[in-house]
């Protein structure tokens, strides 16, 4: 079994019991804490596509009106559904500097490939390259249907990691050392875990990827600045990972009018 599949299985087995004990996955509880929310369901049997985008200067209108609007219409023909758009505001760790992270969902990898091969999408490729500085695509699946209530008053930490295979045994030690503190004291809520799919269409291929919800950035940095976390980073995380991307984001309500509650 490839290492990324083993790590994903471990991650699910470790995270779910801890979160269940804290009772933080209750949709009723989450909805009461939301000032405004956008609901997105990531489905088990579908392909999930994450796209990280950074635009060139003064190219937002060309990207949204001339590229994205047309691409989304074509996507519908192939069963593509836009789930959520996150806007980044702080790069915590990593070299990637996306301004936006888009999540879409497709019936299958084959339908996504058919979309990419559509002549009209091929025509749009030159425009996409003209207006973007960064355009990275990750392909994922999820082990169970997962509904996420993205709240306007919450912060969302998107993280992807490539694991050093020689030190993968340190990953459970890191999570065991820090997750209890993050959940119980600082309100960390793991809302999404995705399993990577290795395919030529994927330009971003971490071994682990997920999204965690935080009450606010103060709690996030209180956690990451804590002695327990810093010690665990030095002892376990740094030697365990070859790469880490950690991006703090908030949900964009402008991109899909009428979908928030």
Question: Can you give a write-up of this model?
Answer:
By secondary structure, the chain is α+β, with helices and mostly antiparallel strands. The chain has a single domain, classed as Alpha-Beta Plaits. 40% of the residues lie in helices and 33% in strands. A hairpin with a 6-residue loop joins strand 3 (81-93) and strand 4 (100-106). Helix 3 packs antiparallel against helix 5 and helix 6 (170-184) packs antiparallel against helix 8 (227-240). The longest helix has 20 residues, at 3-22. The chain is globular and about 55 Å long.
Please describe the structure with a list of short key phrases separated by commas or semicolons.
261 residues, alpha+beta, Alpha-Beta Plaits, two-stranded antiparallel sheet, eight-stranded antiparallel beta barrel
How many domains make up the coordinates? 1
Strand content: 25-35%
CATH top level assignment: Alpha Beta
Spatial gap, N to C terminus: 41 Å
The number of distinct helices, counting runs of at least 4 residues, comes to 8
Query: Are there runs of 5+ residues with pLDDT below 50, and where?
Result: 12-31, 256-261
Elements, N to C (H/E): HHEEHEEHHEEEHEEHHE
């Amino acid at each position: 079994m490839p290492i990324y599949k083993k790590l994903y299985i471990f991650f699910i087995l470790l995270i779910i019991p801890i979160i269940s004990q804290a009772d933080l996955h209750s949709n009723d509880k989450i909805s009461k804490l939301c000032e405004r929310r956008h609901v997105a369901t990531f489905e088990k049997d579908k392909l999930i596509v994450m796209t990280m985008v950074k635009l060139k200067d003064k190219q937002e209108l060309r990207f949204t009106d001339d590229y994205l609007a047309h691409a989304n219409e074509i996507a519908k023909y192939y069963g593509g559904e836009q789930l959520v758009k996150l806007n980044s505001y702080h790069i915590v760790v990593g070299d990637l500097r996306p301004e936006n992270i888009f999540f879409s969902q497709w019936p299958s990898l084959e339908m996504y490939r058919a979309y990419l091969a559509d002549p009209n999408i091929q025509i749009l490729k030159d425009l996409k390259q003209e207006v973007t500085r960064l355009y990275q695509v990750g392909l994922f699946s999820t082990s169970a249907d997962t509904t996420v209530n993205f709240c306007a008053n919450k912060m969302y930490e998107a993280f992807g990691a490539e694991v050093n295979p020689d030190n993968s045994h340190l990953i459970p030690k890191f999570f065991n050392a820090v997750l209890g503190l993050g959940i119980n004291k600082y309100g960390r809520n793991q809302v999404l875990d995705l399993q990577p799919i290795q395919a030529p269409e994927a330009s971003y291929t971490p071994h682990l990827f997920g999204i965690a919800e935080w009450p606010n950035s103060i709690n996030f940095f209180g956690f990451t600045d804590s002695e327990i976390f810093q010690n665990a980073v030095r002892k376990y995380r740094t030697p365990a990972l070859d790469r880490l991307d950690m991006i703090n984001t908030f949900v964009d309500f402008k991109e899909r009018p009428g979908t928030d509650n």
